[in-house]
Amino acid sequence: MIKVKITKNIIRKGEVGFGLTLPQIIIGICGLAVGLGMFLMLKDKMSLNLLMTLIFIVMALFIMFGIVRVDGMSLGAILISMFKGVDKRPYCIEGVCRNELVQKEK
Question: How confident is the model at residue 57 (pLDDT cuts 50, 70, 90)?
């Protein structure tokens, strides 16, 4: 069998417990708190099946936006960057690589 050496800081970078980082754990706890609050507020006002489905959807959204990461960014951060619009950066024509085909001004 071929062995590959991997440093430990790559394997366990920033993990607190269960393979999650501290912000991910905090968002998961917030999702649980919101789900419990919804249950306590709405348990007498709607059927239990409908209420549990609604709580599941809300908690799944919390977990999805807090724990799932794409290219190191949470889905919430990705949505915020999408709503900001195009990232326009200043561009300077004069630089190291100059286009020699442009005619020089006389």
Answer: very high
3-state SS string for the chain: CCCCCCCHHHHCCCCCECCECHHHHHHHHHHHHHHHHHHHHHCCCCCHHHHHHHHHHHHHHHHHHHHCEECCEEHHHHHHHHHHCCCCCCCCCCCCCCCCCCCCCC
* Burial of 48 (C-beta count, 10 Å sphere; 0-12/13-18/19+): exposed
> What does the pLDDT read at residue 3?
81
